[in-house]
Design brief:
Elements: H1 13-22, E1 29-32, E2 35-38, H2 43-62, E3 65-68, E4 72-74, E5 79-81, E6 85-89, H3 90-93, E7 106-110, H4 116-129, E8 134-139, E9 144-152, E10 155-164, E11 169-171, E12 177-179
Parallel strand pairs: 7-8
Antiparallel strand pairs: 1-2, 3-6, 4-5, 6-7, 8-9, 9-10, 11-12
């Protein structure tokens, strides 16, 4: 008698895929346009996110915000992102699982050689489509920062940059502060 493979019917493939990646032990993974990717940021990559948190921690706390790299779900698509950094209102972050981009105040992605185009093109388009009000792209290969705002179905309608590293990036309301990029 040979063992027959078991087959399971899945009524909602998107939900099943997103459930599965959340339960992979010991690894952080994201789904970008249906492709599962391990999230293994370098120390350099993490350093940029830490610098932003360290520079603006007191202001973020005063504004009642949390900054971290929690999961972002894009319902209706095969996408589940782990951003370099997301800033969200404290009351939304408390006890939350995955958030949707329009619940954030700012999303920061830091490029690496292996994912630069994903951050520059795919995530920028999807974050705008899902209403993330501010998207800061820290492009380590191009050594620049670009701030996208005013999201819409066709993308962001306002762009500041690319600004070379060392040029301050002005974050608008609700932040009204400048980000020092000289050490990125």
């Amino acid at each position: 008698m040979s063992a027959q493979p078991r087959r399971y019917a899945v009524a909602d493939a998107e939900a099943a895929l997103k459930y599965a990646i959340q339960h992979i032990k010991g690894d952080r993974v994201q789904i970008v346009e249906g492709i599962i990717e391990h999230v293994v940021p370098s120390w350099d990559h993490e350093g940029v996110a830490d610098q932003i948190r360290e520079q603006r921690g007191p202001e973020l706390s005063r504004l009642g915000c949390r900054a971290g790299s929690g999961d972002l779900d894009l319902p209706g698509t095969p996408n589940w992102y782990v951003p370099g950094l997301a800033v969200v209102p404290r009351d939304i972050a408390k006890g939350a699982g995955a958030l949707v981009p329009d619940q954030t105040l700012l999303i920061v992605e830091v490029t690496s050689e292996s994912n630069g185009d994903t951050d520059r093109i795919v995530k920028r388009r999807r974050y705008a489509e899902y209403g993330a009000p501010l998207y800061l792209l820290v492009d380590r290969q191009e050594r620049s920062c670009t701030l996208y705002s005013a999201p819409g179905q066709l993308g962001y309608t306002e762009v500041k940059g690319p600004l070379p590293f060392g040029t301050p990036v002005s974050l608008p309301d609700p932040f009204d502060l400048e980000l020092d990029t000289s050490d990125f």
